[in-house]
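User: what does the whole thing look like in 3D?
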Amino acid sequence: MLTFVIIYYAFLILACCVAAYYKYRTALLLLFTLLCVSLISGLLFGAEVLVNITICVALLAAAAGLSYSFRESLIQVLPPEGAKLMRTAPLTASFGLLVIIAYVIAAVFAPLIAPFGEAEVVGGSFAPPDDVMLLGGDQLGRDLFSRLIYGARNTVGIALMTTAIAFIVGTLAGLVAAQMGGWVDQVLGRIVDTLMAIPQLIFALLLLTIVGTSVLNLTLVIALLYSPLIFRLARAVAGNIVVMDYIEAARLRGESTWYLITKEVLPNITAPLAAEFGLRFCFVFLAISALSFLGLGIQPPTADWGSMVRENATLISFGEVTPLIPAAAIALLTVAVNFVVDWMLHISSGLKE
Amino acid sequence: MGGVLPLIGKRLLLGLVTLLVVSIIIFGAVELLPGDIAQQILGQSATEETVAALREELGLNRPAYVRYFEWLGSAVQGDFGTSLANQRSVAEQLGPRFANTLFLAGLAALISVPLAIGLGVLAALYRNSVFDRVANAVSLVSISSPEFFLGYILIVFFAVQNQIFPAISNVTPDMEMGERLYRTLLPAITMALVVTAYMMRMTRAAIINLLASPYIEMARLKGVPNSKVITRHALPNALAPIINVVALNLAYLITGVVLVEVVFVYPGVGQLLVDSVTKRDFPVVQACCLIFAATFILFNLIADVGAILSNPRLRHPK
Amino acid sequence: MSDQEKKSVLLEIKDLKIEGYSDEKWIEIVHGIDLTLHRGEVMGLIGESGAGKSTIGLAAMGFTRDGCRISNGTVLFDGMDLTTATRAERRALRGSRIAYVAQSAAASFNPAHKLIDQHTESALLHKVNTKSESEEDAIELYRRLRLPNPEEIGFRYPHQVSGGQLQRAMTAMAMSCRPDLIIFDEPTTALDVTTQIEVLAAVRDIVDQFNTAALYITHDLAVVAQMADRIKVLLKGDEVEEAETRKMLADPEEDYTKSLWAVRSFKREQKPPPAANETPLISVKNVSAAYGPVKVLDGVSFDIYRGQTVAVVGESGSGKSTTARCITGLLPPSEGEILYDGSPMPPRYQDRSKDQLRQAQMIYQMADTALNPKKTIGEIIGRPLQFYGGLRGADLKKRVDQLLDQIELEPSLYYHRLPSELSGGQKQRVGIARSLAAEPSFIICDEVTSALDQLVAEGILRLLDRLQKELNLAYMFITHDLATVRSIADVVVVMKEGKVVEMGPKDEMFKPPHHEYTDLLLSSVPEMDPDWLTNLLESRGVDNIGEAAHQKKA
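Assistant: Here's the predicted 3D structure for the full assembly of 1225 residues, as structure tokens:
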């Protein structure tokens, strides 16, 4: 251990000096911050922390390298417009894209990838990892790895469906409110204000108590509770469009409201709506996972990340990290989506100037 | 201040109306149950007579609006009825738990508000620097992670691998302040992590927006040094957006406790709510929802009133 | 200013290049500008938007906005190079020796502080004066700039003071340290003509009195002619030419500079008045209208005949655009009615028949917001044909091509383009084609030329005139620009505060005597003559312009 610590600090200090000598300001600042953090946490928690830090940094570096090579190969492969777009992508966005693609593959080909069925009992309860069960078994002896893969299908699928429903309802209502104005706008606005006056998670708990927990109920309740947020955005963005002279010209031509909404307004708000879809997907996904974690969302035996954390939480007090893997899977996907959304927002705001 | 008071009055009235409507929703939701509460409590196998007897006992034969006003009337006086699960008074169970939840949320706010505003202002001032980028990425990760993930990571690190804090935050009413603080710290940090990230990002956006205003450019063109541009020209106008950001995030904080309380087995309202939802203990669920909603509405109200008060255009009417 | 050369040089800019950051790379936006300004001299910088005027103005203070940088050249102010000076050195100059007056005073005053506190800030900061001295000075300057209640006005917050007064207060603020140089960045662009004139008078007065040098940035030639000793014309970051004001106006050298005067050369003869028994095409009868409780139109009546152009003039808030909204049915009148060819039209556009809607078309001021950015030119022009005429396929394409020919755009080139790929003038032409596609008898033109360069604007006016002759169209021209009125109107309607103040045939309206307000409005519009402001102030007196004139009447 001592040798590791010595090598660790020697390497960091050397790297700092090199960065300073060649005037790499950014690198120097980052390395020096890392040095300080290592010193403090090393003193507080002992040398093991340094190993953890090394692993974290190595993982970050690996992720950065992967994202970089992914972006560069995309630039080579894609047609010119796509390549031009990818050139503007920061590493975070390319990392996000990579992760999303991986999740999609896992979800689509789940039965092919997973060695066992999602409810199949393979070994003893809480069996330790071995060659058969890569991540060990859960409390009933089902293969954790297989359930993780199926979870991608279930959790992400349900969240996607819920977001889509919320989106269609919210956007349509928002566009109608913006275009019609007057009392329609007023009434819809009031309803939305009231729905949003109750915190979403609490409201969801209340409604789920009443209607009971099933996938359909869960989807509808969450969609109902998240559509007001989408309504507000759609209303605001469309509000900026409906005051445009070309909308006035179309109204004076005698066009129907449906034509105005679909042909004149909608094409102009697709970019912010797409970004909003990503953002809202994250919120919906987190909300569903949270409800499942509380035992009120997706019900067993369906494999789902939120409930997997809950079922195996007892292991944590024994220092096992396997229950955290599904939680990490949730976090990784939301981070990835957020990274991509951030990039999209950056592009669309940059175009305005 | 003459022009402000009617505005605030109007806003307060609106808040009250919202609260009333919300209470109707909370009460009415239970009415939507297939059958009624009596049927739900006794299950499908119960005989007609027992169900009718319970109905009589709970007063379900009277019209819904009468029961609503009774329920609201006693709720205002702090009486939320009796729990179906253990026949104890709801208020009695709720009281100490509400205090615990406020303590937890308050501690989280104490950690996160100064941290978030400080970091947010710094990120805005040094935008596009390394600091800004790192802060942006870290806060994004923090926002994206479910609270239970952050909570368990903290438990693994601080309670299991290094036994610094307890993994279970079982506070009791007779506990000393120091002990209480010690046991509440880990859940508070978990909540602070998420809220700080939100608040920081919102503060940063608000300040960047502010720094782009023509009067800030004007101040620079008058030769005002950077520090004074911030303190004299930016801050007085930043108050409104910052109050708004803080109040909105506190509203989020108070409802975000549910998950954290479950992770740390902390005896608060959130824990009670989740337990009661599983047991379908309606009076308790209603009471918890009403408390959460009222707090949420209150903070949104504070955000709006704060924005009105700190707007010079409204404070000094023509 | 014949002794100009004897005076010493105050500001000397040499080969200044400025770059802007966009699309992840630096692009040059100012390409090597030279500029020499002597003490006490006023130089006008003119050019259209995107010419780099403001960027150069700010660079003269050693300042660049976020996302811009000075990449080459020197800015010598009184011998000191601002491009290499330290931050502290530059800061010491700003506010004390070089001051800035921004375009929008309403946005540039900090809403959280009183005017006088912002006024004294520079003086205290640069230790020129004590607080009380500076406050006294502020009141004195307010008085000189003819602000109402000079003792009291400084103790108000910016939102409590009107736009024209704020702009003067900002000029006063710029004077607080008696700088050697003031940069005026379009100080009157956001103001109405009658308000503009009092700000112009104030600025010229103060510059003369204190012998301050100034860079006066504007896109309005008539304004710069009043203010500047020399004029420099800019185009897309390059200098076109520079000359003394009178020489520049009388004898411009470059084609671009000549084109700036072009609109004045187009003037159509007034048409003979309609026969006594002719039914007006559109008749506005005693129309009143309100937005909620605010009454904006009060008993407006006028007629528009076939083949004629009625110009409606007035300042912002006078109700000219609201009148158009009543005619089109967007805002149903609270009283009165709109007659089409002698018979009343339903007040709400929703209740009008397709044919009634087709007859009255509209062309908008901002071509950018008038065309859907996501539709091709072919789709935009084709939609009315499809909607009213039921044209499809090859017939539709053929008719759109005809219309594109009519507005002088080559069909094969423009049919598939998006609005963003067109210039401002071309977009305006597409807007015209879209209204022609409905085959109307009447078109409302809402400030159609005011967002365009003079030369392009003239092209649009000529096109509209030609179309009127070919198709016997009636126009209602909403405008605040009297030059446009002179060139194209048959009848002029003057509006103020929702009422028609005066109306009559154009030739009569441009000859006195007038209604008092018409007189004020007509005389307040700057003319290209450099002596215009001087003469006007002599004939009317300083107390008889702008707000002061309004108040005197009341």
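In plain terms: The first helix of chain C runs from residue 53 to 59. Chain C has two domains: 3-262, 282-372+427-523.
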